[in-house]
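Model it.
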Amino acid sequence: MKKKELTFIIVGLILGAVIGGLVGDIIGTFLPAGAAKTVFAKSVSIGVDTFKVDLYTVSFTFGLKFKINFMSILVVLLVIIYFRWWYL
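Modeled.
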């Protein structure tokens, strides 16, 4: 696999996760209370909370958090299926 193809796949997966998460949040906002709203609106956060290092003249803030919901997983799986069908 070429470096260009690998970069394209990684960018596609990241964009799929972001767009899927956004769509899931939007759908979850407009659904009435019930099981469907729970599926679309529920998300799991994985990562490290931010922490700050202050060295008088320089200050660093570190942290990384992923928010995963149903639609982000679904869109990432669709992107993987698409790339397998198209590139392999």
